Write a sequence for this structure.
């Protein structure tokens, strides 16, 4: 494993992690505990995230050379020694010799979009932004090529199975809820 130490990259990783934390509802809402001396104590600070380089999981045009990998983070930030998850990310460096310190981080809607896979079709729309800033793309927790995946095969099969079928919205919703429940029962 290799950690990148460039300030712009560390800013990019930090921004991605802040977005993930903000969207995950992670964080404790419990008030701080008091120590024996009566002053508030804080939980131990988790280790900083690690960026692990990997091959890009999407087609990359020859003229683009992103840094691809995943950010290894605790599944539950309250359990720093617990199970780790991998948030897949790609960083495209600015074309500027002196890029702005703050990168642009693309947060795909959904949630659940496979952001990185879509780059093979959408990347050129973002290229003008590389003139001044780095670009960071990532697959949100459980989506795309982040690991573990949270895709529910039963719901996906149901969706494709009813395309073109005369199904009422109520029937569709009932099937979706049934299949999502089955998926939840069998998920790790």
């Amino acid at each position: 494993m290799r950690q990148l130490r460039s300030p712009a990259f560390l800013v990019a990783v930090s921004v991605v992690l802040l977005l993930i934390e903000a969207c995950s509802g992670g964080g404790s809402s419990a008030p701080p505990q008091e120590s024996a001396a009566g002053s508030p104590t804080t939980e131990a600070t988790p280790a900083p995230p690690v960026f692990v380089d990997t091959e890009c999981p999407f087609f990359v045009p020859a003229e683009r050379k992103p840094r691809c990998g995943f950010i290894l983070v605790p599944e539950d930030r309250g359990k720093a020694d617990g199970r780790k998850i991998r948030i897949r990310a790609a960083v495209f460096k600015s074309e500027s010799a002196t890029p702005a310190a703050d990168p642009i981080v693309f947060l795909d809607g959904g949630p659940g979009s496979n952001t990185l896979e879509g780059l093979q079709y959408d990347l050129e729309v973002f290229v003008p932004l590389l003139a001044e800033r780095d670009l960071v793309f990532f697959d949100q927790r459980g989506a795309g090529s982040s690991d573990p995946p949270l895709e529910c095969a039963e719901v996906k099969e149901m969706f494709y199975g009813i395309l073109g079928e005369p199904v009422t919205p109520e029937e569709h919703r009932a099937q979706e809820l049934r299949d999502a429940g089955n998926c939840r029962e069998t998920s790790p």
User: Anything to note?
Assistant: The first helix runs from residue 7 to 24. Residues 152-188 form one domain.
